Amino acid sequence: MMTVFSNLETSLQPELSPQLAQESVKLYDQFLQLCGKYADEALVPPQLADMAWHKHLEMNSYAADVQGYCGRVVEHQTDQADSVQEQGWARTKALYQSEFGIDLSTLSDAAQLPASCNG
Questions:
Q1: What is the DSSP string of the chain?
Q2: The pTM is what?
Q3: How confident is the model at residue 76 (pLDDT cuts 50, 70, 90)?
């Protein structure tokens, strides 16, 4: 996955600064780890991680990459009810803190917000 993450970082750089691209991929990596460990929970990625996720979804290797990395294919949900989205975001923020020691509110603006993909 290191090569995949490196490719994602490069593909994000036209849209993001190198520093934000790196942060995006790191948060996405951590989000995938959480999805593997907490497979039964509806987690919501930070907006910045979601940017890397969208780039990864464009790759033909997405399903195999993610299956190998976190033990399952993580489906990108765009039709969650607002209450599920809010609960998932609260849980995700708590897990970033407990699992990685990261308070998302201290990171860049796009890391502080939940992804908001609509259909």
A1: -HHHHHHHHHHHTTTS-HHHHHHHHHHHHHHHHHHHHTTTS----BHHHHHHHHHHHTSTTHHHHHHHHHSS---------HHHHHHHHHHHHHHHHHHH---GGGS-HHHHSB-----
A2: 0.91
A3: confident
